[in-house]
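User: Predict Tripartite tricarboxylate transporter substrate binding protein's structure from this.
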Amino acid sequence: MKTAKWKGILLGTVMALGLAGCSGTGSNTASGANKNTYPEKAIVVVAPSGPGGGWDRTARTFTKVMTDAKLVDGSMMVENKPGGGGTVFLASYVTQDAKNDYKLFTGSPPVLINHLKKEGNSPFGHNDTTPLAQLTKDYGSIVVKADSKYNDLQALLDDLKKDPTSLSFAGGSGPGSMYHLVSILPAYKTGIDHKSIKYVSYDGTGEAMTALLGGNADVLATDASSVTQYVKAGEVKVLAVASPERMGGELKDVPTMNELGIDAEFMIWRGIFGPKEISEDALSYWNEKIQQMVETEEWKTAMTSAGWESDYKNSEDFKEFLDQQNDQIAELLKALDMAK
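Assistant:
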C-alpha cells in the first residue's frame, strides 16, 4: 500500500511538471516560434489603371483607411499600372509575383470578363490569384455632358435605333469588358444592334471622363459613384443607373433602367486580391485586418464620401461569389456573341 501511495504522489508530480511545461514560459516559447511576423516591410497595392478611376479610388481608400485606423503594422503605398484594361498588369502579376505577399491589387468584374471575352482575351483570371475580400458594390450608369441634347435614356436609345453608329461611347475598360457591357446593355435589351455601337476604351474612368468632357465622346458608360462629383459640379447628367433601386445622394433623382422598362441590372463589385501562392500568414493577416477595417468609423465615413455601398465578403466567401459571377458573366457574353 505504501509503495502504491508513493507511486501516486510521484505520478501526480510528473503530471504537474508536464502541465507547467505546457504553460507559462514553455507556451511563450512555442507561440513565439509560430508568431505571425507578417508584414515585415511596406505593402504595395496596385491599381491596374490610371489615376481617378474606380480601381485607383478603391486602392487609395483601402490604404488610407487601413493607415488612419492604425490597422497595419507598417506602411502602405499605391502604384498605378495602366494598360489593356487591367490585362497587362495581371499578366505580369501572375507570372512574376505569384509568391509576393507584399503586392496586392484592386479588382472588379474585368478580372473575370477579360478572361472570358473574345476580343482582347486575357489568359489569366481570378483563379490565378487569391481573392482576399470584396469591399464594395456599385452599379453601371449612362452619362452625358451637361449640355448634351439628351435628357433621358429613351431619347438616346431612339437615336441609336435609327443609327447604332451615330454615337460614340467612352469607357474605362477594354473592348468586351465591363464598361463596354454597361454601354451596350440598354441597347441589347431593347433590340438595338449592339454590335454596331461605337465603343472607345480608355485606361480608367478618369481618362474616359476627360474624353467625354473634352467632346471626344458622346456618352460615358461607367460606375455611378465615379460621377457624383461631376454631377455636383454641374458638368454631367446621368440618364440612368443599372441598379435594382434608385441610389442616394447626388443620384437620388436618377431613374433605374428597370423603371424605364429596360430589364437590365449591372452590379460592379470591387475587392482586394493577392498572389495565387500567398502564404498562410499573409492570408490570415488580411482576413483579420480587412474584417476589422470595414467595421471602423473611418471606413463608414469613406463609404459616404465616395458614394459607395460597403459589401464585405471574406476571402472564402469572395472566392465562392466570384465562381458564381464567372458563370453568369460567361452566359451574358455568350448571349452578346462576345464570349471567347
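The longest strand covers residues 129-145.
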